[in-house]
Amino acid sequence: MKQFLVRIHTFYSTLKSKIAFYPSLIALFGFVIALIMVIAEQKGISRHLIEVFPLLVVEDGDTALSVLSTCIGGLISLMVFSFSMVMLLLSQASSNFSPRLLPGLISNKRHQIILGVYLGTIIYNIFTLFSVETSEEKFTLPGFSILLGVVFSIICLGAFIFFIHNISQSIQINNIMDGIYDQATHRLNSIIEREDEKKDQIIQAFPKTENWYSYTSPKSGYFQNIATQNIIDICKRKEMKLYITVPKGLFVLKNIRVLKANKKLDEDTVQAIFANLNFARGEYIQDNYALAFKQITEIAVRAMSPGVNDPGTAINAIDYLTELFALRMKKNDLGVFSEEGNPYIKIAVVHFHELLYQVMASLRTYCRHDPTVAQKLIWMLGYLKQQPSLEQAYMEAIDEELKVLLKAISFDSEKDMEKVQQLADSILKS
C-alpha cells in the first residue's frame, strides 16, 4: 500500500509540473458547471431570477446568441494571445538566461490557472450556447446560465490584466532568481530540520560497503527522491543495511549499479526497494536543491559571456549563491538515515567541497578578467568563512578555492591586482 501511495505521489508531482495540468483541471470544472446549470435550468431557476431581478435576464434569443458568441470569440483571442506571451517568455528566458529555467517557468501556477480560467469559461459558454433557441420566450431562455457566462467572461478580463502584470514581472531576472532561491531554501531547511531530529540518533558508524552485494537500476532517469521511511521498514524486516551509490540529481543509466546491500537480496525485495526510488526525466529544485546552484551559476556565466557582457546580473547571482552556500554549510555531509539510533540507509551526497568547486570552476572561467566580479567572488568566500560550520573540511574547501581563484584571475591593471590580493590576504589570515 505504501509503495502504491509513493507511486501516486510521484505521478502527481510529475503531472502537476506540466503546463496543461491546471488548464485541463479548470476546463473540466467549467464543463461540470455547465452540466449543473442545465439541470438547474430544467428546475426553473431562470424563472425565479426574472421575478427577483428582471433587468439581469436576457429577454431575446438572438441577443443571447450574440452575447455568448461575442464572449466566446473574445476569450479565444485572449487565450491565444496569453499563450503566445507564455511561449515568448519561455523562449526569451531560454536564450537570455538558461534552458534549465524552463521547467520552473512552465510550472508557474499563476499562468496555468489563468489559461485554465479562459478555457473553462469558453467551454461553459459553448455548452450554454447549445441550450439557447432563438424562438424561445424569455421565460424559457436559460437566463441565469447566460448571466453566469457573462460574469465569467468579465472575470477573464480581470485575469487578463493580472496576467499582463505577472508576465512582465516573471521575465525579470531578479524575480526568476528569487523563485529559484525560495525553492532551494525551502528544500534545504526541510533537510536540515530532519538532520537535527536524527543527529543524536546516529551513534553507530555506518559500516564499510566495499564487499557488499551490488544491484543495478531497472530504468534510467534523474534520481530525484527516495521514500526513506518505506525503505527503512524494508531494512528492518530483512535485517539489512543499504547504500545508494548515486547522489540525488544525478542522471542514472539503465543497468548501472546504484544499490548495495550487506546481504544478498531476493528479486522481490530489490523491486520493492527500487519502487521507492523516484527516477524522473526532468530535474526539479523541489527534489534536488543542488539544481538551484547550477541554475544560478549558469545565469551568472551567461551574463558574463562576451555576447551578453552583463556584470551586474552576475554580481546579483553571486549574492544569491552566497546565501545558498551559507545555508548549505548548516547541513552535514553524512547522508545517513537512522531510526532509534540504528543507521539503515546511506546515500551518496554532493559534498560541500564538490558543490563549491563546481560553482567556482564555472565562475572562474568567465569572471577572472573582470575586477568587480572577481572581488565579489572573493567577498563571497570571505563571508562563507565567517559562518559557523559543522565541519572543518568546509573551511579548508573555502581556503582552497580562494587560492585557486587568485591564481586564475588576470587583470591588465596592477592596481586591480593589488586590491584583489589585499582583499584575499585579509580573508586568508582571518
Q: Please provide the count of β strands.
A: 8
Q: Which whole number gives the mean pLDDT?
A: 80
Structural class, by secondary structure, is alpha+beta
- For the record, the CATH class of the largest domain is Alpha Beta
Number of domains: 3
Helix content: 55-70%
Could you spell the SSE succession in H and E letters? HHHHHHHHEEHEEEHEHHEEHHHH
**CATH homologous superfamily designation of the largest domain:** Pyrimidine nucleoside phosphorylase-like, C-terminal domain
CATH fold node name of the largest domain: Aldehyde Oxidoreductase, domain 3
Radius of gyration: 29 Å
**Shape descriptor:** flat
Protein name: DUF2254 domain-containing protein
Transmembrane segments: 20-40, 64-90, 111-132, 144-164
InterPro entries: DUF2254_membrane
Organism: Marixanthomonas spongiae
Write up what this structure looks like.
The chain crosses the membrane at residues 20-40, 64-90, 111-132, 144-164. Keywords: Membrane, Transmembrane, Transmembrane helix. By secondary structure, this protein is α+β, with helices and mostly antiparallel strands. It has 3 domains: 14-171, no CATH class; 174-296 and 304-317 and 325-350, Aldehyde Oxidoreductase, domain 3; 351-430, no CATH class. Helices cover 65% and strands 8% of the residues. It contains 16 helices and 8 strands. The chain has a 5-stranded mixed sheet with strand order 1-5-3-8-7, covered by helices on one side. A 3-stranded antiparallel sheet has the order 4-2-6, covered by helices on one side. The protein is flat, with a radius of gyration of 29 Å.
